[in-house]
Amino acid sequence: MSKAHSQASDSGKPRILIVGGVAGGASCAARARRLSEKAEIILFERGPFVSFASCGLPYYVGEVIREEKNLLVTTPEIFKRRFNVEVRLRNEVLSIDKTEKVIEVKNLDTSEIYKENYDALVLSPGSSPVIPHLPGIDLPGIFTLRTIQDSNRIKTWITEKEVRQVVVVGGGFIGLEAVENLANLGLSITIVEMLPQVMPNLDPEIALRLQEHLSAKGIGLKLSDGVKQFSQAPSKKGIIVTTRLGEELNCDMVLLATGVKPEISLARQAGLEIGELNGIRVDSHMQTSDKNIWAVGDAVEVRNFISREWSLIPLAGPASRQGRIAADCILGRQSSFRGIQGTNVCSVMGLTVSSTGLSEKTLASLKNKIPFEKVYLHPGHHAGYYPGAKMITIKLLFSVPDGKILGAQAVGEEGVEKRIDIISMAIQKGATVFDLEEAEMCYAPQFGSAKDPVNMAGMVAANVLRGDSPLLHWKDLDSSRYYLLDVREPLEFKLGHVEGATNIPLPTLRARLDELPKNKEIAVYCAAGQRSYYATRILILNGFDVKNISGGFTSHKTAKPE
Ligand code: FAD
User: Fold this and answer.
1) Pocket flag, ligand 1, residue 25 (CB < 6 Å)
2) How many angstroms does the Cα of residue 109 sit away from the middle of ligand 1?
3) 257 CB within 6 A, ligand 1
4) Which residue of 111, 379, 461, 515 has the fewest CB atoms within a 10 Å radius of its CB?
């Protein structure tokens, strides 16, 4: 049955219809109301909640967030009272007639189908989990985590089936957040990941620290292996996950975290342009190929801020900013989206991992190549003299020769996201590593250092660009070409060193210069790169041909992951 509820749209009151009531849709609705008291704004959401905290779902499963109501950022009643926005829950938009500017909607409670016309339509339908077509995929006990209902189903299954063993398929950020929370419940977990690393947005040497940490915490890690099939255990209790490499993992529950794909069915049906990555194509004003339709959030592909290539990066912050931009543009303000940097953070069982901008992997795959260099450093998250300093591993990528910051990745226990947020903002402002050197940051010993890790990253990179500290990476160390010099203390050397290295501790270096070859390049390292920098300067000023190995001995084991 089809029934029209259309209202006049030429009354000077723009009629704004929004599909999807979470990050992008809700922020669009609220912003639109702040810009116009006249607009009629209706939000359609096929689920039973508006504006819920999807990012909180893993923590709800893990009982860190104890009550479902705490996930509800707002309600239809609050939307009505505060913003005069009508929210229609359990109303699914079925189709768009862009010529007539009409949508068809189904009330999922009554099965009534009706039509609404619009002056402006905003699509924020999000993304849906990628569900691999594998034998046994429909077995009970296999879940995805996307909605509050999914979380409740998982929680019920864990309790009712007395779950002990879980296989998490996919080691991206949703998978890892789930691992942390399931482990908090005392469950035993194995991750199966097709790629040779977890967190695919990171470079492998940074992901390695996460992998070591997960293993140390007792998480099983099957990398470079995928799932071949799921089958019911003979006892009918539990599932057997068979991997492509032939391993059989017995478990009571499987969580699929194999990525998400943009929800484009409505857009495709309406004939809107779909991009090369299968996201809705929009311009910088979030306008689709139809001038009356805007689209935001996980469903759209947008330009990467740095490379300007099309990207699909499903994150809440960009979705909500894009919702705001769409509302601005609909109501006559010329806001535009600058592009996405993919700034993200994830907590992994006591470690924080965060990144922004382009990784080395992405830089290597760009169509328009950007000449770049990278540095590694491992500073404490605050002054070393104050108790409790924890090491942060930082990788900074920058263009050569101008030093423009291209990306950064960091992992550590404390203070990680603060550094990445600063670098993220620096990237937005087109800053260089020379700007990071000069950045003024707050400092007291329990929070940072007079030379903050961000300054240090800038200084290390700037030293490279100025030629003060020629750089070498472990993977480029050719032992036949270089004389390898370790300038750490003898005890450090004894506890572990790189094969073939000669130990001349920094304090004795000036007195022992005659032991060094004049006719061979010297590659120098210390623990993290600072003492070797001092050594590099001494050697350069004494006429030696020398390179400082980035990240020192700490980076050595990650440079050649086994
Ligand atoms: P969504 O928030 O997914 O909203 C889309 C809504 O549209 C859905 O509720 C859907 O029901 C509705 N809808 C779709 N089609 C229709 C239709 N035809 N009619 C009516 N309604 C429709 N991001 C971060 O930045 N940080 C995090 O820590 C983080 N953690 C996450 C953890 C989990 C478990 C998940 C699943 C996501 C996480 N994200 C995180 C990603 C973030 O939630 C999304 O990027 C963001 O919600 C996208 O917003 P959106 O408006 O595009 O889509």
Assistant:
1) yes
2) 22
3) no
4) 111
Closest CA to 151 of 89, 63, 24: 63
Residue 404 in this model has a pLDDT that exceeds 90: yes
How far is residue 257's CA from residue 263's CA, in Å, rounded to a whole number? 17
**pTM attached to this predicted model:** 0.94
Which residues are part of the catalytic machinery? 55
423: left (phi over 0), alpha (psi -120 to 50) or beta: alpha
Confidence tier at 237 by pLDDT (50, 70, 90): confident
* Binding site membership of 373 for ligand 1 (Cβ less than 6 Å): no
Q: Are 344 and 201 in contact (CB under 8 A)?
A: yes
pLDDT at 245: 97
Give the angle subtended at the CA of 22 by the CAs of 65 and 124, to the nearest 5°. Answer: 150
pLDDT at 562: 40
Q: In this structure, which amino acid lies at residue 310?
A: W
Which of 90-124 are b and which e, b meaning 16 or more Cβ less than 10 Å from the residue's Cβ? ebbbeebebeebbbbbbeeeeeeebbbbbbbbbbb
CA of 264 to the centre of ligand 1 (A): 13
Q: How far is the CA of 262 from the centre of ligand 1 (A)?
A: 10
The predicted structure's pLDDT at residue 339? 97
Q: Which domains does the chain have, with CATH numbers?
A: 3-127+261-330 (3.50.50.60), 142-258 (3.50.50.60), 350-466 (3.50.50.60), 471-556 (3.40.250.10)
| pLDDT 10s digits, 255-301 | 999 999 999 999 999 999 999 999 999 999 999 999 999 999 999 99
Q: Kindly state if the Cβ of 548 falls inside 6 Å of ligand 1.
A: no
User: Which residues, 6 or more positions from 52, have their beta carbon under 8 angstroms from its beta carbon?
Assistant: 22, 71, 72, 73, 148
From the CA of 179, how far away is ligand 1's center (Å)?
20
Q: What is the largest CA-CA distance in the chain?
A: 93
